Amino acid sequence: MTAGTRILAMGHYQPSRVVTNDDLAATIDTNDEWIKSRVGIAERRIADGESVADMATFAAEKALAASGLTAADIDLVTVATCSSVDRCPNVATRVAARLGINAPAAYDLNTACSGFSYALGTADHAVRAGASRNALVIGAEKLSDVTDWTNRTTAVLFGDGAGAAIVTGVADGEQPGIGPVLWGSAPEKGDALRIEGWQPYIEQDGQTVFRWATTALAPFALETCEKAGIKPSELAAFVPHQANTRIIDGIVKRLGLGPEVVVAKDIIHSGNTSAASVPLALSKLIESGEVASGAPVLLFGFGGGLTYAGQVVRCP
Ligand SMILES: CC(C)(COP(=O)(O)OP(=O)(O)OC[C@H]1O[C@@H](n2cnc3c(N)ncnc32)[C@H](O)[C@@H]1OP(=O)(O)O)[C@@H](O)C(=O)NCCC(=O)NCCS
């Protein structure tokens, strides 16, 4: 049991293959100007043979190496994903086997694009309750597997990648680095975003999702800050799910964030990577030094379900 937890280290992985808007315009009726102005994406990374488990493992290896822990220290592995094609074994056990993590609790969690914050919340709870000492939390997606590359309304939006965090308990008297999770959903709107059936493709009612994201979410993001006892103006950075720069800008405005708060816009070069987008963007901000160690960062995921979840974390 511990009074609180923190993120010890992070890591990320993206495939090397870059697909630009012009590349897509060569095969479907779209163009760079439409994609940039409506969604904010310039390019995305698409897996070239890597599976969800491969990308999750590569991101986790980096997080583990940066944490100073070894595989022997990890006793819980959780992977947020909505695009893994294999039902069983789950991705978490595959990652554990590849990294030599012995006998961990290992589960996948699917709340689509809000998945990383849900998984981080469950890991925080497990460590606090004494069910785990050190947890490996991953968001990993290969959305290219569930994308209809002939459908311009979805093919331009998504990308592949993974991000990972090592979560551990804090010492007595030390400030927790992971704030209380706020999580929830709007199940009555669930059909607005679907990956259904066998050999499925992503389908969505884009405007329903857009309206919901730009109207319903800012109050929940604010409530997440309140739960952590922090004002939005005191944040060093905001890392929302990377679905659309217009959605991000709308939430930023409603939170009243000033230019001093770093806002993740990894979508420009990565597209929407669903459950991977928040840990990918956070890991990059840490790697680039844009957000200092100990700085408070609001994570906020949202998407299929329709689900949402967020928490304020301190940068490792
Ligand atoms: C998907 C989204 C970018 C579409 O933008 P939009 O402004 O709603 O665009 P619309 O669907 O109304 O389409 C507008 C026009 O652009 C066209 N269009 C759609 N996709 C296009 C593309 N890739 N290239 C060029 N034109 C396109 C449409 O056919 C339509 O043409 P029309 O006016 O002649 O009928 C936007 O709705 C969105 O971001 N929604 C949220 C989706 C999301 O974030 N999902 C993931 C959540 S995790």
UniProtKB/TrEMBL annotation:
It comes from the Bacteria. One of its GO terms (biological process) is secondary metabolite biosynthetic process. The active site is at C113, H241, N272. Residues 242-246 are annotated as: ACP-binding. InterPro entries: ACP_syn_III_C (IPR013747), ACP_syn_III_N (IPR013751), FabH (IPR004655), Thiolase-like (IPR016039). Pathway: Lipid metabolism; fatty acid biosynthesis. One of its GO terms (cellular component) is cytoplasm. It is an enzyme of class 2 (transferase). GO terms for molecular function: 3-oxoacyl-[acyl-carrier-protein] synthase activity; beta-ketoacyl-acyl-carrier-protein synthase III activity. It is found in: Cytoplasm. Its EC number is 2.3.1.180. Residues 225-314 form the Beta-ketoacyl-[acyl-carrier-protein] synthase III C-terminal domain. It catalyses: malonyl-[ACP] + acetyl-CoA + H(+) = 3-oxobutanoyl-[ACP] + CO2 + CoA. Residues 107-183 form the Beta-ketoacyl-[acyl-carrier-protein] synthase III N-terminal domain. Keywords: Acyltransferase, Cytoplasm, Fatty acid biosynthesis, Fatty acid metabolism, Lipid biosynthesis, Lipid metabolism, Multifunctional enzyme, Transferase. Catalyzes the condensation reaction of fatty acid synthesis by the addition to an acyl acceptor of two carbons from malonyl-ACP. Catalyzes the first condensation reaction which initiates fatty acid synthesis and may therefore play a role in governing the total rate of fatty acid production. Possesses both acetoacetyl-ACP synthase and acetyl transacylase activities. Its substrate specificity determines the biosynthesis of branched-chain and/or straight-chain of fatty acids. Belongs to the thiolase-like superfamily. FabH family. Homodimer. PANTHER family: 3-OXOACYL-[ACYL-CARRIER-PROTEIN] SYNTHASE 3, BETA-KETOACYL-[ACYL-CARRIER-PROTEIN] SYNTHASE III. The last Arg residue of the ACP-binding site is essential for the weak association between ACP/AcpP and FabH. This is Beta-ketoacyl-[acyl-carrier-protein] synthase III. The lineage of its organism: Bacteria, Bacillati, Actinomycetota, Actinomycetes, Micromonosporales.
